Amino acid sequence: MMKTDMVPAYLGRPARIQTLIRSLERRTVITPEIAKDCVQAANIQANDLQLWTDFEHPVANSYGRQLIYDGGHFEIMVMSWLPGDYSAIHDHGAAQWGAVQSFGEAEHAVFRLDQMQLSTVSVHPFSAGTINVVTHDLIHQMGNPSNRPFLSLHVYGSLGHHGPITGGARIFNLYEECTQYTDGGVFFGLPAHQITRQVNGLRGDRETTLRHHEQMLARVHRRLADGEDTILLLQTATMLQQDLADFKTVTSHV
Ligand SMILES: [Fe+2]
Fold first, then answer.
1. How many CB atoms lie within 10 A of CB 23?
2. Distance 200 CA to ligand 1 centre (A)
3. Could you identify which of 130, 131, 171, 224 might form a hypothetical disulfide with 180, taking C-beta atoms 3.0 to 4.6 angstroms apart as the criterion?
4. In the predicted model, what is the mean pLDDT of residues 165-184?
5. pLDDT of residue 69
6. What CATH number should be reported for the domain holding residue 163?
C-alpha cells in the first residue's frame, strides 16, 4: 500500500495541469523559453482552470488571482480578468523565468526603467492561445481591454530559490512616484499593509504616466461606484483627474 506522504502533490488536478507540473519538476535547467515550451506542450485549455476562476474578486483588486500549485522552486497561478481589469506595472520578484498563456483577448505592455525613469517599450494585443515569456528583468502590465472575461495561466520559477517566487515583486506607482514592494497581487492602489517596502523617486515619461493615470483612475472610479467612498479614495480620484487635466493642458499648448 502506498504511503500518503508518497502520493505526488499534483494528483487530483486536471491531467494537462499534471503534465505541466511533471515537465517542470523533472527539468534541472529552466529558461524562459523552456518554460514556454513546457506550457505549450501541456496544451492546457481554459476548462482545465475552472476550479481556480476568481471573477468575483473584490473591486479593489485589479484582477482575480489563485494559486494552482506551489512546486517549491516554481509556482503555477491562474488570473481572472473582467472587462477593464488591468494589473499595475510590475516585475516578478525572485522569478528567474516564467511563461504566461492568455485565454482571451488581452493586452500586454512592456516598460523600460532607466535611472528611475519609466518609459513604454511596447503595447500589444495578447491574443487567446498566445504564450509570452517572462524574464527576470521584465517590467510589464497585462489587462483586459475587451468586453469579455477570460483567464490566463502563469508559471514563475527560480531554481534553488526558497520562499514565495514572486514575493518582493515591484509595483511601479507613477501616481505616488515610488516603487512599492509586495508579496501579493500587483494591484493599483495597494493598501499600506500589503506594501513591504517603498522607494521614492520614480518618474515616467508622458505616454507612460498618462496611460498609468487613466488606468488607475478607472480602478478608483470602479471602487467608488462599488460604494467604497473613503476620503483617501475620493482624494486620489480628484488628484488623478487634476494630473490628467494638467497633462492635457500642457500638451495643447505645445
Ligand atoms: Fe506579470
1. 17
2. 22
3. 171
4. 95
5. 94
6. 2.60.120.10
